[in-house]
Here is the input.
Amino acid sequence: MNAASRFRDAPGAAPRSLRLMLDGVPVLARPGESVAAALLAHSGGATRQTPVTGAGRAPYCMMGVCFDCLVTIDGHPNVQACMVSAREGMVIQRQIGARRLGDQP
Amino acid sequence: MSADLVIIGAGPAGMAAARVAAEGGLSVTLLDEQERAGGQIYRNVGAVAGRGWLGADYARGGALVQGLDHPGITHQPRATVWRIDARRGVIWSRDGQSHVSPAAHVLIATGAQERPVPFPGWTLPGLMPAGAAQILMKQSGMVPDEAILSGAGPLLYLVAAQMIAAGAPPVALVETPTAITHALPKLPRALFGLPTLIKGLGLIARIRAAGIPWYRGAADFRAETTEDGRIRFDFTTGKQSHSLTCDLLLTHLGVIPQSHLTRSMGLAHEYDAEQGAWRPTLDPWGQSSEPHVFVAGDGGGIGGAEAARAKGALAALAILHQAGKLDAAGRDRRAAPLRRALSRALSLRPFLDAAYSVPSAFLAPPDETIVCRCEEVTAGSIRKAACTGAEGLRLMRTSLRTGMGPCQGRMCETTVIGLIAEATDRPASTLGPGRIRTPVKPVTLAEIAALGPQPEETT
Ligand SMILES: Cc1cc2nc3c(=O)[nH]c(=O)nc-3n(C[C@H](O)[C@H](O)[C@H](O)COP(=O)(O)OP(=O)(O)OC[C@H]3O[C@@H](n4cnc5c(N)ncnc54)[C@H](O)[C@@H]3O)c2cc1C
Here is the structure.
């Protein structure tokens, strides 16, 4: 599911100099942006499947309210990708199916 | 990490309050879950140079951020507050570890969230709130590609103008019914609101000049994913049906106070019928029903950034007085110009609230709409449950799990209330606000346990 991004770079945007890994695939990120932003720049597809029906979801509110951007970061499940800044070498996994809040890595 | 005053939220309200309180001699801890101060309107403002396309209002936030550079202010970024405890203080989490900031005085300045805009398809990848796209513009230098802007309200025009300035104009503006003519009598008599009004008209002129197709009176929203992953957006205007294709469908119907913290503390709240939302009950200084707890900014009722700044400063003056650092005469003298600024900032509100009220189809959407995004509960099942006894938020929660997911009802409560109101023919004002329990943001049990013994629960 690697649909083209639904965003493009604004005039004068800084280069994407950070490299994260998303399910084994490199994803580039701009210093200061959230992991959710990097995922949206990488692909227009789903970053998560819901526990209830398996429907695809992508980051939505970008301000920590909706919890649709939950991913696993460096082994920690259920992290709000919109509230975490991208850092070099981060390992991210999409969450497919149920993962209860409070699950330990 | 004790402070005289703990402020939650580093938006215009919290930043203005921090400066006034620190200059008045209080030690201030400013907690915000974001990496940088600025809040929603001035998000990332300290870090971005030369993004002229975001406009002059945005750049103005820089001064507020610089004001935090005061020895009395400790700004704690990435600090997510999940509980305010009457005895222990403000409890917050960072990197999986919780901390307690004891405080004699607390100011809650948590701002607003975008009002949920539910319709069939709003959960699909490729749909986002317009404000979320704006966050990406401010924080990541990303602009929406081939996007449609839909809904109503001043922020929609602003985002459209910012997209145009960034060289990525929206492919269409699909506006839900507005009541501008009906709202005209609410225009302020004095010329107070004029600059804001002119700014708004300027935005509209820029959208017109860019030649963007503009649909008015749109209803019956529905979105689907096309085979090639794009979004097909169906809607009607009057008797006419439309079907547009885009990469991103952005929606907006205004903002509502973020009241999870104030509600979880059991503060008194009231329903604001004009804005269709609950807000904490406050006196003119922002003092809540709990004497040492104040609320300022959009979290206490939507007023916009200038009002938030004034309210933050007013609350800080009252707190200085409460702390014995400022006599009543000094407080009132310094409050006078702030009150004038506040009434100027609020003068256009009644007009805006009346002109851009929420169409009922987004409060009680069609049956197939997913209302609770977390637990995937549809409007149809909520209607059915409401007709068979689940006549309140709590009963609905126990029968269908609405609001029980990680977002704790932030994305569904307004709609669940709208649907129950419709099914039971009761006004929304009698159906809320829902009880919110701590933690207001999810934290692990291990993290809570590591904090040590809890004081007895009062609720
Ligand atoms: C997405 C979005 C975009 C907006 N864009 C504009 C715009 O461009 N122009 C405009 O005029 N108005 C805009 N608004 C309206 C805006 O909310 C107000 O004008 C203004 O920002 C209100 O200021 P404030 O200080 O009350 O709150 P905010 O500026 O919203 O600041 C609140 C702060 O509290 C923090 N916070 C919230 N909960 C917690 C918690 N539990 N723990 C720790 N920190 C917390 C948040 O991270 C945030 O930084 C926008 C609103 C939203 C929701």
Q: What stands out?
A: The radius of gyration of chain B is 22 Å. The pocket of flavin-adenine dinucleotide is lined by residues A 63; B 8-14, 31-34, 39-41, 79-81, 109-114, 131, 134-135, 155, 158, 255, 258, 261, 297-299, 304-305, 308, 441 (CB under 6 Å). Chain B touches chain A through 55 residues (CB under 8 Å).
